[in-house]
Amino acid sequence: PPRRTSAPQPRRHTRLAPQVGTLATGKILIARPSSGTAGWHTRLAHQVGTLPTSKILNKLGLDPYFVDVIGGDGDLGRKPDPAAILSLIEKSAAAPERTLLVGDTSVDVLTARNCGCKIAGVQFGFRPGDFLNYPPDYLLSSFLDLPGLL
Fold this sequence. Notes:
Blueprint: E1 27-31, E2 41-46, H1 50-59, E3 68-71, H2 83-91, E4 99-103, H3 106-115, E5 118-122, E6 138-140
Parallel strand pairs: 2-3, 4-5, 5-6
Antiparallel strand pairs: 1-2, 1-4
């Protein structure tokens, strides 16, 4: 008989990053709409599947802060393929040059370059020292530095 599998569980090691309520793992996309809508759109693209990512956001009480989530299990490809990020940018009615991707790996830098958007690399998270060969546009030691970039 087929093996029964359970639904994916949120990662035990996922936690809130220091100082600000956002994930220490995952890719955050902040896009400024080109026109017609005020404010910023915050969206999340993550290598983990959509369902586990949504569970993590819910568990940490962060789901209200993201207007859209795309997991790595979708049909838009995985990073550094720009398709998922470009889809989120389009949903924000923004342009790549008005978009900041916040990530924690060199793959995020390559993804941002492939999209034509800026990248802020965080020095904490999944691979804190991963930017040696592919430096980001901005390097953040704390999420408290992020508002100054926006």
